[in-house]
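One record is kept unedited as follows:
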Amino acid sequence: MSLCFQSFNYLPSSINCCLSKDTSQSSKVKKSHAMVKVPASIIPQAEESNSSADSNTTCFTNKPLTDRNFSCLDQANSVGIIGGLSVDSSLNFAKKLGMEEQETGLPFILCSDPTLNKELSSLERGYFPLLSGRTDRVHINQSSVIEKLRHKRVFLEKSGVCCVVMPCQILHSWHNEVEDGCSVPLLHMGECVAKELKEEKFRPIEAGSPIRIGVLATNATLAASVYQDKLEHELSDMQGFEVVLPDKATMEHTVIPALDALSRKDFEGAQNLFRIALQVLLVRAVNRIILASDELRQLLPPDDPLWMKCIDPMDALARSAVKHAQAAGRSK
């Protein structure tokens, strides 16, 4: 079966969905529809259409979100995903959930809003003036972004998910605002990474020094807001990590040129520059490096030995979501 969500301007009380039982390539589906293959076990109950025009289609309309009994997925271990800047990144994260829970699979709902993606793209250009060739800040209505994220969070809550995740670095700038009033855990990427690093029980590389964790991202300010506080201050039962960010010279001579080379499809040049940036951080005696960028992560092949010194925050977020889902499934 295919679950087809029509594109819409988000209105929590008026979302129309359509279940198509015909999975053949000849099925007529509008190009604006997003097709998602899902197991039949997680398809919500629907009212059969009385129309004879299409006997292979079952249609349903959601109940208003004020109805607290509404549940799109009648499974306690379902995960809600709020898509961010990159659709590919959101889909890759969904794939990670499946890889982490291969035995039974994990039901999930993914919300992706093209209008929000455009706003986030504008914000990203404002964060990276060196890449865009601009020296002025791009201003967007952040309250509008926060409101849209809250709408999606509420929709996912009412859909019956056990937790919500945002597999996007930029979205975590508003994590606290989006989380306010949430009835289920809204997992924070920085917290998930910090917990996994804590479990590693590292020893300082340099005697007498603190345990250092490097953060390599396309924007140091954003990286600090997502990871630094969580790594340095929120490990209550032990001393926090010391966070090491690339200095200005490293950003200007390796990270930014690597992204520029990647945009020109010079993958070899981008990879060489990226490796230099990693080595600069390793020389500063860091135990691990958080790769807080979708663009940079793709430059490191899966079998590269440097992964032994790196951690993918999306992996940590996926593992944490699976743990929450498994616990919710056992408690039902």
Summary: The radius of gyration is 22 Å. Residues 71 and 160 are 5 Å apart (CA to CA). The chain has a mean pLDDT of 77. Residues 1-67 form one domain.
